[in-house]
């Protein structure tokens, strides 16, 4: 099921792609609308680059728009798609082009077509990743908040930080449906492990970057969603969202399971020049030893923050964990192999006095 659908059932793991609304008009309607769009494009472009140059570009694009060839991105039979193409061409002729993931929108102050604010952030070339274990407990917390209020708080963190790629763990069907109510949801393409989940909760990858391919890494009771992303400029990113085996008894067996799961993911991602593995690793150096990084891989936190604690699970600071045995660990991580990117920053999020989860989240920025 695509993200644009508002269904109460669990999303189909086989297809989380964003839906596209197609409007089929008659040929006469298309021609009439297209003619109007051509005229508008010429007038808009003439204000910026001169009537002659833009008129030529408009005529050329108008001719090509009637061709039998249809680009993959275009909507068949849609005058709107042709009009957007034409307007983009007019702006190009003027030497000023603005692209947006959701098309071109008017800016009356400058008689120009510019992307919505939400799309302008990628102009810097940075890519932001967010990982969060959202806590599957659908109960009233110790602060008297019902669980949807916690999910709302996490949703506000997404609004605040506006990440390009999001890894969520411990998502339940109800939590999934609550996230779908946020306005930001429609801007992401979704890939999840819901169909493969066996424990009632699952993993989600949300991406504003185009997803070229989707698959799973199956390893000892875990289905880890993996995606190849188009990061622009011919660059590709292979990403995986993990939730490795917890520390429950039997501890020794679970420790070996974690190591096997981590190795399986690293074996898959290591084939890529650019890869990011994030999530709730449940990893502690004291019990598990060094994380099994391969040559060319780094732990983003230790690389950027050095010896700073970075505890994402902290029974002393997180009010949800006050009654539990003392444990301060960096269970949640990003590990990266980046040939065409650089690490810029990493920070803890969700650390407010009344945190929305028993884990803190991480926000990683690369460029």
Automatic annotation (TrEMBL):
It is found in: Nucleus, PML body. One of its GO terms (biological process) is double-strand break repair. SUPFAM superfamilies: DNase I-like. Pfam families: Exo_endo_phos. InterPro entries: Endo/exonu/phosph_ase_sf (IPR036691), Endo/exonuclease/phosphatase (IPR005135), TDP2-like (IPR051547). Its main location: nucleus. Residues 130-359 form the Endonuclease/exonuclease/phosphatase domain. Residues 1-32 are annotated as: Disordered. Keywords: DNA damage, DNA repair, Hydrolase, Magnesium, Metal-binding, Nuclease, Nucleus. Its cofactor is Mn(2+); Mg(2+). GO terms for molecular function: 5'-tyrosyl-DNA phosphodiesterase activity; metal ion binding; nuclease activity; single-stranded DNA binding. One of its GO terms (cellular component) is cytoplasm. PANTHER family: TRAF AND TNF RECEPTOR-ASSOCIATED PROTEIN, TYROSYL-DNA PHOSPHODIESTERASE 2. This is Endonuclease/exonuclease/phosphatase domain-containing protein. It comes from Ananas comosus var. bracteatus.
């Amino acid at each position: 099921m695509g993200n644009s659908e508002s269904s109460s059932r669990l999303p189909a793991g086989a297809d989380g792609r964003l839906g596209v609304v197609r409007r089929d008009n008659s040929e006469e309607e298309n021609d009439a609308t297209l003619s109007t769009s051509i005229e508008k494009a010429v007038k808009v472009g003439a204000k910026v680059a001169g009537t002659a140059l833009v008129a030529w570009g408009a005529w050329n694009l108008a001719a090509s728009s009637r061709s039998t060839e249809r680009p993959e991105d275009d909507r068949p039979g849609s005058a709107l798609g042709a009009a957007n193409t034409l307007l983009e061409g007019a702006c190009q002729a003027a030497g000023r082009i603005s692209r947006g993931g959701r098309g071109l929108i008017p800016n009356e102050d400058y008689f120009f077509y510019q992307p919505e604010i939400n799309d302008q952030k990628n102009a810097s070339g940075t890519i932001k990743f967010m990982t969060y274990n959202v806590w599957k407990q659908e109960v009233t917390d110790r602060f008297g908040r019902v669980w949807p209020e916690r999910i709302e708080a996490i949703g506000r963190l997404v609004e605040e930080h506006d990440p390009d790629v999001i890894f969520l763990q411990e998502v339940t069907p109800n939590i999934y449906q609550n996230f779908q109510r946020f306005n930001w949801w429609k801007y992401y393409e979704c890939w999840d492990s819901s169909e493969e989940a066996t424990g009632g909760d699952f993993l989600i990858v949300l991406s504003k970057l185009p997803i070229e391919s989707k698959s799973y890494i199956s390893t000892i009771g875990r289905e880890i969603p993996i995606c190849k992303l188009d990061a622009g400029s011919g660059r590709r990113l292979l990403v995986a969202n993990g939730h490795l085996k917890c520390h429950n008894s039997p501890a020794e067996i679970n420790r070996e399971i974690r190591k096997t799961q981590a190795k399986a993911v690293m074996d898959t991602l290591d084939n890529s020049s650019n890869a990011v593995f994030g999530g709730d690793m449940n990893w502690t150096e004291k019990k598990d030893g060094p994380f099994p990084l391969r040559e060319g891989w780094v732990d983003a936190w230790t690389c950027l923050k050095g010896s700073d604690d970075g505890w994402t699970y902290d029974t002393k600071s997180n009010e949800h964990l006050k009654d539990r045995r003392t444990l301060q660990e960096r269970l949640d991580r990003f590990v990266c192999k980046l040939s065409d990117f650089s690490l810029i920053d990493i920070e803890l999020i969700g650390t407010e006095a009344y945190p929305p989860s028993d884990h803190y989240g991480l926000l990683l920025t690369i460029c």
